[in-house]
Amino acid sequence: MSVTPNEKKENVIWVDGRLVPSSEATVPVLTHGLHYASAVFEGERAYGGVIFKSRAHSERLKTSAELLDFEIPYGVDEIEAAKRQVLAENGLVDAYVRAIAWRGSEALGVSAQKNTIHLAVAAWVWPSYFTREERLKGIRLDIAEYRRPDPATAPSTAKAAGLYMICTISKHKAERKGYSDALMLDWRGRVAECTGANIFFVKNGELHTPEPEGFLNGITRQTVIELAKQRGIPVIERPILPEELADFTESFVTGTAAEVTPVSEIGPHRFTPGDITTTLLTDYENLVHAGGKAD
């Protein structure tokens, strides 16, 4: 099946303060962000025309840029307005929204302190990261070869483009083996996250999840933790070792793209989506479709 490249789709993208056709939303080949991964981005979802936790995403985008030593020349309110404009101009109600900021093409050495900082916002229709069939059965996860890096070696709390290189490699390898995604360990060999989603486990009525060290503390992750606490479900954030996976009965992943998706298998370990997974999946769906009013 052929796939239409994003730049050939009939929509408009907000670029540096103006709306342009997607075919014209291009960057020079010698752009610093392309060669040195000096780019940060956000993935967001709009439900019923409302972007879920939109401001939290815009604030994180600004923070990510600061961690990569550049400043986005637009304030949070301006970024918020740009996202609303893109949705409206494209006639989108339920959509995925991508904001990205990057260093431009003035200098192409490692040092690029005077390069122009650009910002773009795009939106398109993108269903859940996993198919409905996968979500109902629970996805299968491989165990990735690459590990999330030590925070002393990379700005791991930023949603930075360069941090996803090993995620793409790991997801490709997992898909070629028939899995939906891959579980990544951290630099110490502890359970970390999947290639684009955080992970949770259930044991004896309690929710266990790795401490966000060396990987992004996702906005969906934080939302699910709050939903669990509202339900009176104990939430334990702690180091989790791979050998503990056999002790858990349920597992699920969370992320803007993945939403809340049950897991049925991680390598040799099996899980059955149960009451806690189903409850939190339903609570999350109810929240986002209510416009995130419980935020």
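(ticket continues) Second input and output from the same batch:
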Amino acid sequence: MAGNYDDRDGKIWMDGVLVDWRDAKVHVLTHALHYASSVFEGERCYDGKIFKGHEHSLRLIESGRLLDMPVPYSAEELDAAKEEVLKANGLTNAYIRAVAWRASGPDMGVSASRNPVSVAIVAWEWGSYYGDAKWQGAKLDISKWKRPDPDTIPAAAKAAGLYMICTMSKHAAEAKGCSDALFYDWEGYVAEATGANIFFVKDGEIHTPLADRFLNGITRQTIIQMARDKGFTVHERRIRPEELSDFSECWLTGTAAEVTPVGQIGEHHYQVGQTTRDIAESYEALVRA
């Protein structure tokens, strides 16, 4: 599928109805456009099966709850809508975006409790999120921005507003020839990339930042369980920036990223080693099982 995202053929599910792709529009006074009252999910369908689709539906609902924005559909209704979108567009391998937002209504200020919550589900073909870096190893910049204290934001929500610094950081990284950027948290510990969680390898053991101050990705949880089932020791802990030079391998995880090796973070270099390849191959087999 090519062209701008607002000018394509296909169907989009909006509030219970399939509409033509080009007709899926919202008003300029939609609350989410002005105040970031929006949550979303990214999912992948492999060979006709959405990987952990129900878990994503549950998280969309939980994200809405955390933003005081009740999603007006059950997880089962969202699951059915995703299947409807895939069928309507003739897709068996696709990326799926479910989004819920405060729409336009009688309120147009910070408070918008009287405005309805809308939901849309879209699907399209999307290849590797990092392009050739998926096989060669991504190069990461280190962002000047920090992941904020979870006492200041709903860190467990997949909320659109939390991605503002992600867009800024990824733009800055790309301007330097990098694929992405690594965030530290507000205390200076290693956190995550702009849209993916991060893992490291040292002496055959896996280390990943403790996900209590940023989104605990569904793919992240899947990889941790998979690695433990395969006999790897996995440490979820605080990782200091000065430790980045101690690790031999590194990779990113996420629905879009899947398992993407990292070859460099700032001045630190990593090999695409056996552990990374093992995890990537096992994840590929799992999602297509």
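Agent notes: The helical segments are 31-35, 53-66, 75-89, 133-136, 164-175, 218-229, 274-287. Residues 11-124 form a domain with the D-amino Acid Aminotransferase; Chain A, domain 1 fold (CATH 3.30.470.10). Closing as not reproducible unless the customer responds.
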